[in-house]
Amino acid sequence: MTTSRRVKSTTHGFPFARILNGAGFCVAPTLWEFVRSLAHRIAGFPAAGRAALKDRVNSISLAQVGDFRRDSDMFLERARDPETQRRTKLAMTRGFQTHDGELALAKMVTDLAE
User: Residue 10 to residues 17, 19, 53: CA-CA distances in angstroms?
Assistant: First the structure.
């Protein structure tokens, strides 16, 4: 069995290990070493270069503000639908709000359609 290992690397102020371990991941020590090594390597790059790269990555990978608003509006519209409300209530009675329920999402969605 592979064991996880805590490291001091952080992502936006949150311990990287806590994020992965909290999500139920068990990460091999070799992966921790790779992540730690990569984080230190990136930290050694000039700050202006890191900022410019981060800006470019965000600009091509993050949705525009209007798209977030549209998605939010669509979600709220569907949430008002009686059939959506019925399925949501049924999902909650079957444990959807629990960790195990979230892990069984694919099966639960299929079962709710029946």
Answer: 8, 9, 19
